[in-house]
Design brief:
Main location: membrane
Oligomer: single chain
Distance between the termini: 28 Å
Strand content: under 5%
Number of domains: 1
Number of strands: 0
Organism: Rhagologus leucostigma
Protein name: MALD3 protein
Structural class: mainly alpha
Membrane topology: Multi-pass membrane protein
Keywords: Membrane, Transmembrane, Transmembrane helix
Number of helices: 10
Helix content: over 70%
Order of helices and strands: HHHHHHHHHH
Shape: rod-shaped
Length: 215
């Protein structure tokens, strides 16, 4: 009916489009954060996958034997445990950034801002708070990762794998972690844009509600 059409019209507004972009970016942050965490990796992870991974990485890391193999396994596990809290925190933040715009979209579809215009000011405030809070969160994310990569565990692990001719175990940020940071900046800017759109829509709703009183 006409009510359903009015609800669907919200999804065509600029504010809804911005919120759907926020959902997409937050989902990508979640994926990149999970990649950053990874598995136990290296000597213990890839051979267990079997098949193409087994042969691609030299028959279950044939370069390792005896004490070197045990040391590689220990370093992999310790490195994984060092990164795990950071990855979990990043995934939790990504999940929150994903849920919030979904809730706001639902609120818009249900036309809550039309019946309760003050919600738009509340929404604006939440957007600003989250956008500003994203900056120290990104600092903590990269600062913690760099601390892990500068640790003695990572350095020893890197040297051990390089001594056997294996590449890809460098102590530096990888693509998924850099992408997560860039996406975090993008979502912060999108939130600030949504805050501005919420203020604009509040003025529009307020003006439209005042019109019947002027007749």
């Amino acid at each position: 009916g006409s009510l359903e059409r009015r609800r669907c019209l919200y999804l065509q507004t600029g504010r809804a489009c911005c919120q759907m972009i926020e959902v997409l970016v937050a989902a990508l942050i979640l994926v990149c954060s999970s990649v950053s965490g990874g598995s136990a990796g290296g000597y213990t992870g890839l051979p267990a996958l079997g098949g193409i991974y087994y042969y691609q990485y030299g028959g279950a890391y044939s370069g390792f034997s005896g004490a070197d193999g045990e040391r590689a396994q220990q370093l992999d596990q310790r490195f994984y445990l060092l990164k795990l809290p950071i990855a979990r925190a990043a995934m939790a933040v990504g999940g929150c950034l994903l849920v919030f715009p979904c809730v706001v979209i639902l609120v818009g579809v249900l036309r809550v801002p039309w019946h309760f215009p003050a919600w738009l000011l509340i929404e604006c405030t939440l957007y600003i708070v989250i956008a500003v809070g994203t900056m120290p969160a990104l600092y903590y994310f990269f600062h913690s990762l760099l601390s892990v990569y500068n640790s003695s565990v990572c350095k020893e692990r890197e040297q051990l794998y390089q001594s056997k001719g294996y590449q890809g175990f460098w102590c530096s940020l990888h693509g998924a972690e850099i992408a997560a940071g860039l996406l975090g900046c993008m979502v912060a800017m999108a939130y600030l844009l949504s805050a501005g759109l919420a203020v604009r829509d509040y003025r529009t709703v307020h003006e439209q509600k005042q019109k019947p009183l002027q007749l």
